[in-house]
Amino acid sequence: LLVQKINLDPGDRIYQRVASFLKNGGLVDFYRKYSVVARETVVVLEGWIASTAELIRYLDEDAKLIEEAFPGVEYPVIGIEPLASDTHRGGRSVRLIRFKNGQQLVYKPRSLALEKAFADFLDDLREMGFGLSLCAARCLDRGTHGWMEYLTPQPCDDELAGRRFFLRAGALAC
Hints:
alpha+beta, 5-stranded antiparallel β-sheet, 7 helices, 5 strands
């Protein structure tokens, strides 16, 4: 609806058109005409503000635990990015947290008890002498939310590495 109201033509500079539309009261007129969209915009913004404030509070409250669970993490936080995920419980979503030294963690706005149990299970298998080296991302479960090690996807260096990857993936699937 908003794009139709602005009357964008192919080749127009979208930013300039939107800026002009907003400066000339177009958004106010749009929201007057589509009041439900105005209300939903407010709901989304309120959720984003609340969930971001909550995340910042958790980063502060959990700082010592984070530094213990993830050696090498150095505050301050220098960046927070949304990751591709749905929002839940009032706009909460998975975020990538970047620290001063380049280390990254993933914040999840839910319990990580299942991930922790899975990692513990893999540790138990390793201790019992399971033939394959299987591991999970380190995590810190805080009940209402949690922090996970960010694992950067890497290509396999050679065919042997590819075979090991698929062997481990198959073991995890069984």
